[in-house]
Amino acid sequence: MEASFRLGKIRGIPIGIHYSWIIIFGIITWSLATVYFPSQYPGWPPALKFGVGLATSLLFFGSVLFHELSHSVVAQRYGIPVSSITLFIFGGVSQITREARTPGSEFWIAIAGPLSSVGLAILFFLVFLVSRDTLVPLAALSQYLAFINMALAAFNLIPGFPLDGGRVLRSAVWGATGRFVRATRIASIVGQGFAYLIMLVGLVFVFTNDLLGGVWFIIIGWFLANAAQSSYRQVMLQDTLQDVSVSTVMSRDFDAVDPSMPLDELVSQHVLTHHLHAFPVAADSAVLQGIVTLHDVKKVPQEKWPNTTVADVMTRAESLKKLTPQDNLAEAFQMLNESRIGQIPILERGQIVGLVTRADLMHYIHMRSQLGV
Length: 373
Known about the structure:
- The chain has 373 residues and is α+β, with helices and mostly antiparallel strands.
- The two termini are 28 Å apart.
- The mean pLDDT is 86.
């Protein structure tokens, strides 16, 4: 899920907010200020109710962010890159770029979130105990956050993939059977079962005159069912790509450019005529020296193009991700996702022999799907 707004970075991980977060943030703040706190503390003035409601909402989403950061930090310790964390209508999601390598690392990455939420619940409960007789607004806020963090931990421990509990279940089945795809399939089926159960509970609420609560349960169940199915499909896709070599998809008809070429010639003779976004940089020897992209060109003011060469703006070969024709497409898929790049040069004996682009890979996957392969 792409963020609509960027907040900054923590441990090198971009933190963002999806526009749907604004909706749920407003709903939670309003319900706390007009329903929850007035029922618990009827003597509070309206300004205090809204102030504590706003602070509680902010700390609630801070708790969600802390939950996701816990997953991300443990993933990083296992050498797994994390591309971003996004807060959205159902909470938060860490974009961990690849699956864990072992059942043990899968377990600890998954369990880190619920453990962090339990830790926050204990912390907020202690604050409640200390402040309940002296700072009532702080105690009210802390009591609610202690409950909500414990509820967040309990919900995520439901053994339904892709929730944290589902990933813990997958790690257990994976460890017992040694078969990652089978473990994912079992966890996905259990996840869909829990999702349909949540939707059924929502229907019961609808027919017992709790329309809002029922619709909310149905939406959550629908979201979890779709997430379980799509997560399993992605694992199956990566497993399928393990058996396909890069040479099957790579484009051999690439347009290499000389490093001494000025940018105005690159644009007029290559960019505008070939409709490509990236060009390998290689002299007559075909030894890759780098890649120049449309983004690199756009960073240079147009009036400077005649006096700026490809070598001045290209990404040099030593900084590039590279593969060989014998590598598999699963590696290419993972590399494109982890590095957020659009293409990978394919080298053989130091010379460039082709390119694999994100578009090439997506076309291959689409055609397999169309053919039912």
